[in-house]
Amino acid sequence: MKLIWVVLLIGSLTMLAAVMLRNKLSWRWITRFMLHLITAAVALYLLNYSGITKGFEVPLNPTTIGTVVLLGLPGIALVLSLQRVLF
Predict the structure, then answer these.
(1) What pLDDT is attached to residue 25?
(2) pLDDT tens across 37-81, in order?
(3) What domain of life does the native source organism fall in (predicted)?
(4) pLDDT per residue over 12-34, tens digit each?
(5) In contact, 58 and 83? CB cutoff 8 Å
(6) What is the DSSP string of 16-38?
(7) Distance, CA of 66 to chain centre
(8) Reduced to 3 states, what is the DSSP secondary structure of residue 52?
(9) What single DSSP character describes residue 84?
(10) Neighbouring residues of 68: CB distance < 8 A, sequence distance ≥ 6
(11) In degrees, to the nearest 5, what angle opens at C-alpha 47 toward C-alphas 42 and 51?
């Protein structure tokens, strides 16, 4: 059963890559997304080590970086407030 899921995943990733590479518009989308991803990771890194938020340390993982990529600065506020409420 695992083999079926792996084959299905690899096949769908291959087809997605073929569609993305064929379309020039997708290259612009990929570069913008990667720029946002790198900017979010650097912003979280600087936030952690600048000392602005004493007592809080936001982990650099796909969930927090994804939240900041999607929401921007409100995403950082959301992650910090969730950390304060939950911990």
Answers:
(1) 67
(2) 898 889 888 888 888 877 778 888 888 888 888 888 888 888 888
(3) Bacteria
(4) 999 988 887 787 667 788 888 88
(5) yes
(6) HHHHHHH-HHHHHHHHHHHHHHH
(7) 3
(8) coil
(9) H
(10) 40, 43, 44, 75, 76, 79
(11) 145
Distance from C-alpha of 64 to C-alpha of 61, rounded to nearest angstrom:
6
* 3-state SS, residue 41: helix
Stated length of the chain:
87
CA-wise closest residue to 41 among 19, 77, 65:
65
Residue 8 has what DSSP assignment? H
Report which of 77, 51, 49, 52 is spatially closest to residue 64, judged by C-alpha positions: 77
In the block, tokens 């910090």 appear at 80
Q: Six-digit token pair at 76?
A: 């950082």
